[in-house]
Amino acid sequence: MFNWLWGERTPRELPESWRPILTSNATFRERLSPALQQEFDQRLIEFVEAKYWEGCGGLALTEEHKVTIGAHAIRLVLGFERETLRDVKTVLVYPTPYEAKSQEVLGGNIVVEGVSQRAGESWYHGPVILAWSDIQECLEEEDYWKRRHPHNVIVHEFAHQLDYRNGRSADGIPPIESHEQAEEWVKVTDAAYQRLSRACERNQYTLIDCYGATNRAEFFAVTTEVFFEAPQEMAEQWPELYRVMQRYYRQDFLGQ
C-alpha cells in the first residue's frame, strides 16, 4: 500500500499527552498497521518539532493545535519520503476565520482590491495559515455529513504545498513519477474538472465541492480532501479520479 525507503533511525516514544489528542482528532491513526503507526508517529514528532508555530489573533497555541494539524499533514504524505513537507517552515493558527487582502482582476486591466474572510492559506515555501474553528468543525462533523460533503482545511492547504513542489505557481499538477503517469493524471483530472464545472453550473449536487471548479489548483486541493475523507464514495462516483489519486498518494484505503 505504501512505497518508500525507511531510514535507519532510532524510534522515539510518542509523548503520552499526545495520545488522547490523536484518539480524538486523528482517528485514522488507529486504522494503520502497527508498523505504519510507528512510522506515522516518528514523522509526526519530527514535523511538530521542526516547524515554527505561532498563534495569531489572540490564540494561545497548545499541544492540541500542533499535534492535530501535524497529524493531518503527515497523513497526507505518508506514502512519500519523510522530507516531502520540508519547504513548510511556519504554521500560523488563528482562532477563527481571519481577514486577508484580496485582489480581483476585471476586464481592461482593472484590479479591485478588498478584504475577504479566510479559513486557510498556503504560500510557496510557507507559511501555512489555518483557522482553528474551521478545523474543529471538520473534526466534529458526523460521518454521514463528512461523506456527503468532505472537507478538511488542513489537508486542503497542505495539498497546495504538494502542488507548489513543481514550482512557484500551483497548477493542479504536483510532481509525478513518470511521463506515463503524468499523461494519465492530466487526462483524467481534466475530464473530472470539466464534469464538475458542468454540474456546478447546473446547481447539481456533487461529492466534490464546487469550490474545486474555481481553477485547477483548487480542484487538486478539494479532490484531495475527498480522497482522504470519503474514499469509498469517491471510488464509486468518480472511479477514474480515485484511481489516479490513489496512484499519486500511494495509499489505497479500500484495500485496508
Distinctive features:
2 domains, Collagenase (Catalytic Domain), Cyclin A, domain 1, two-stranded antiparallel ribbon, four-stranded mixed beta sheet, alpha/beta, single chain, disordered N terminus, 256 residues, 10 helices
Explain the overall architecture.
This protein is of the alpha/beta class and 256 residues long. The protein has two domains: 13-140, Orthogonal Bundle (Cyclin A, domain 1); 142-256, Collagenase (Catalytic Domain). The chain is built from ten helices and six strands. The chain has helices at residues 19-25, 34-50, 63-76, 132-140, 143-148, 153-164, 179-201, 216-229, 231-237, 239-249; strands at 52-55, 90-94, 98-106, 110-118, 120-122, 128-131. It has a four-stranded mixed β-sheet with strand order 1-2-6-5. It has a two-stranded antiparallel sheet with strand order 3-4. The N and C termini lie close together (8 Å).
Strand order of the largest sheet: 1-2-6-5
The number of distinct β-strands equals 6
Query: Could you say what the CATH topology of the largest domain is called?
Result: Cyclin A, domain 1
Following the backbone from N to C, one meets helices and strands in this order, namely: HHEHEEEEEHHHHHHH
Low-confidence stretches: 1-7, 102-107
Name the CATH superfamily assignment of the largest domain: Glucose-regulated metallo-peptidase M90, N-terminal domain
Q: Which structural category do the helix and sheet elements fall into? A: alpha/beta
Q: Quickly name the level 1 CATH class of the largest domain.
A: Mainly Alpha
Spatial separation of the terminal alpha carbons: 8 Å
Strand content: 5-15%
Helix content: 40-55%
Mean pLDDT: 88
Shape: globular
